[in-house]
Fold Ribosome-associated translation inhibitor RaiA.
Amino acid sequence: MDYIQVSLAEAIPEQARDYASARIGSLDRYAPEHVDFAWVNLTSDKTVIHAYARLDLKWVEVQAYAEANTVTEVIDLLRERVRRQLVSMHN
């Protein structure tokens, strides 16, 4: 993956940036085309953490959303949703 940008809301710990970069950044091996850019946004409200991802491939954009109670849980759930989409693109 050429580039991944992770945006964090104030309430999200800085360590989440590295975790999201590693987990989402490893998805390029499932993509049918080269991933030019990935963007992850982590926000939270009082009870839930929200995660949104967008991966830009050559002519396709893959997007996913997840919410969970912990940072690692929401990033892992987001990763799985993006992975499923990338794998399904091979068919």
